[in-house]
Amino acid sequence: VEVDPAKYAPFRMGSADPNLGPLIVFVNPKSGGNQGEHVLEEFKELLSPQQIFNLSEGGPKPGLLAVSDGALNFHPCRVLACGGDGTPGWILSVMDELGFKNEPPVAVLPLGTGNDISRVLGFGPGYKGEPLAAILDDLSNAKVVDFDRWTLQVGGANKRRMNNYFTLGVDTEILLRFHEAREKNPEKFHNRELNKMYYMKYSVEEFIKDTRSKVPEVRTYCKLIANGMEVPIPSDALGLVILNIGSYGGGATMWGAPKGFDAQSFSDGKLEVGYVKGTAHMAEIQSGVSKTVPLVQCTEVELSVSRDIAMQVDGEPWLEKVPEGGPCLVRITHLKTNPVYHIAGRKYR
Predict the structure, then answer these.
(1) DSSP string, 255-305
(2) Choices 2.30.30, 3.40.50, 1.10.10, 3.90.226: CATH for 5-141
């Protein structure tokens, strides 16, 4: 890679603006097929190897400690998370665990399949091999904004972080099947477009199940409490969606701008709660002709779940088994805000 020193000087150690600091790059080499490996090597040439960290070698912790002092204060810097939606969340979670007193702003280079955080922050639906110089230009034009993050407590399990969304029910069943197939045969899920084809396959199969009336109504096994008040769940709800951001499942706009509700924002300390009516409804949402049915906006959510059901947070699904004597309690509360880079005016589906 031919490097123009003047072009990359604002991001390099030793020549960056002392108030902004250099760009610290974390790359998940497993993301995006071989894209992660390519990005890792190219950034080493564009910047400096001391600024680039391979997340497969000890995770984010070594890199974060390298740009902080012994008192857990960050030296001025900017962070670029290169990977899927889980990568910026991973970096932010390790910052939480280490207890830093100040935290640098985080930008995203999307290498995953859904890339919902990248979409809402204006960095695009997915990296397609563009010159990394263009990514740095985007970063130069981005502004720092606050990004809400949430604590998710499911039953007696350890608390998790939630950055994007939490769902349960019909659409989550599809995601769980996709996830299990990918874990079993990772070699079949090696690029973004192929992954979408597999996801469509499981969606069609779930649609057939849905039309045969085998999907339980959410209200039969789940009670919704928002800000301490119970919210009735209609009989046609087959899946529940709790949103922090305006992009879901690879670009679907789940909330939109329903009458009687505030505009959605990832900086307002509020969650949007809605529901889907089944796989046909989800297909309409994915195609942009429909939205979730809105239920409530709130600052805290509690669910009481009385049956085993698929759940997911930020694209990571699991089958939650209700303990003997039940129910399983799910609680989502505001954790904090973190600074992130945002390019205003860009919207992606």
Answers:
(1) S---TTSPPP-TTSS-EEEEEE--HHHHHHHHHTS--PEEEEEESEEEEEE
(2) 3.40.50
